[in-house]
Design brief:
With about 375 residues, this protein is α/β, with parallel strands linked by helices. It has a single domain, classed as 3-Layer(aba) Sandwich (Rossmann fold). About 50% of the residues lie in helices and about 10% in strands. Helix 13 runs parallel beside helix 14.
Length: about 375
């Protein structure tokens, strides 16, 4: 058993303020734009008000993209569209501003933070602020060995908690969460299949680079073998992450839980963040109330996990690249919901009375004779 008391998270995490949400719903009824005419933006605005504890809702002013990075040993089985051990290229692409998420973040004026937990390269390959939470170089091949030792899983989990605290303390008011991993979707699929009690074929997708049929079959077999190793440790979530997860996934899970403790809303990206969210939900059932699903990634495992957590994706644009790009695309929608909820004027009481009188008069005119 782990030395971290995960039960504490269930005690510490509260739901977004229900009284504030009811107040936001009541205010929405008074707006000049009719309720329901803004579709899901109404619901988003009310959720944000409850999460941020104010009506009208405060604007999203200091969002941040946080990307946890790592290599997974299972990629050596050629189950990924990228060669094993090449997560360093993904990290460099972000740091150099050349990746999709870096381009989008630049245009949206959102800072990006990369946290290396287990990239398969020397630590001096990246700036010190990127590698200061690193746990190890790469993770084990989960179909035949543990991804991490339990001590390493604890260290990674605590690193994720620390990053959440750093973001909350620095004034970040919403996190766009993603990953920079090679082989990460395979580990994520194992976690989802284990927690949902499904077979490997149900959760095996083709990844961001759309692997071919032979690679898909290898991936499915690897997930099947890893599932056999995962099922005996389902009762201990940290041991589960050590057995079939990875340092980046353990850190992401700790990050999500601590964000919920700190009442910091999070937009989830693809299947990796969804898998970690599912593990976190098993730890603290109220935690998903602080998360939004950014988009549909096309991975069957993501759909399974989001369904289990009752999270409905905001967008479906066919974005499969990962790296938090799809979740970042949802940020303008969330900001729009906050702006509309806060800035649309309320109908004055006398106007409401006049409209009601007109409706009554119209009803009397139209009433047939008895």
């Amino acid at each position: 058993m782990s030395r971290i008391d995960l039960d504490e998270f269930s005690d510490l995490i509260e739901r977004p303020d229900g009284a504030v949400r009811r107040e936001a719903e009541a205010r929405r009824e008074r707006l000049a734009v009719r309720p329901g005419s803004l579709g899901r933006l109404d619901e988003l605005g009310e959720w944000l008000a409850a999460a941020r504890g104010t009506v009208p809702v405060r604007q999203i002013e200091r969002p941040r993209v946080v990307l946890f990075a790592g290599d997974h040993g299972v990629a050596r089985l050629d189950v990924s569209g990228r060669p094993a051990g090449t997560a360093r290229e993904l990290v460099r692409g972000v740091l150099e501003g050349a990746s999709p998420v870096a381009v989008l973040a630049r245009r949206l004026d959102v800072p990006v933070r990369v946290v290396d937990l287990s990239v398969d390269c020397e630590p001096d390959a990246f700036p010190a602020e990127v590698v200061r939470h690193r746990v190890r170089r790469g993770s084990g091949r989960i179909d035949v060995e543990d991804a991490l030792t339990l001590d390493e899983a604890e260290a990674a989990f605590r690193a994720g908690v620390a990053v959440a605290d750093e973001e909350a303390d620095s004034g970040t008011d919403l996190v766009v969460l993603g990953d920079l991993s090679v082989g990460g979707t395979t580990a994520a699929a194992v976690l989802i299949a284990a927690l949902c009690g499904t077979d490997a074929s149900v959760v095996t997708g083709r990844g961001g680079l759309a692997i071919d049929d032979l690679a898909w079959m290898r991936k499915c077999a690897a997930i099947r073998d890893a599932l056999r190793r995962a099922r005996p440790v389902l009762g201990d979530q940290l041991q589960l992450l050590a057995t079939v997860g990875g340092a980046d996934l353990a850190a992401t899970t700790g990050f999500l839980l601590q964000c919920a403790v700190r009442k910091l809303p999070v937009i989830l990206d693809g299947v990796v963040s969804a898998a970690c969210a599912l593990v976190a939900q098993r730890v603290a059932f109220r935690a998903p109330d602080w998360w939004l699903a950014g988009h549909v990634s096309g991975e069957p495992g993501q759909a399974k996990a989001l369904d289990r957590m009752a999270l409905e994706p905001l967008l479906d644009q066919g974005v499969r690249v990962g790296e938090g790009a799809g979740a970042l695309l949802a940020l303008p929608l969330v900001r729009a919901a906050a702006a509309l909820a806060a800035e649309l004027p309320e109908v004055k009481a006398e106007e409401t009375g006049a409209e009601a009188a007109e409706e009554t008069e119209a009803g009397e005119v139209a009433r047939p004779e008895e």
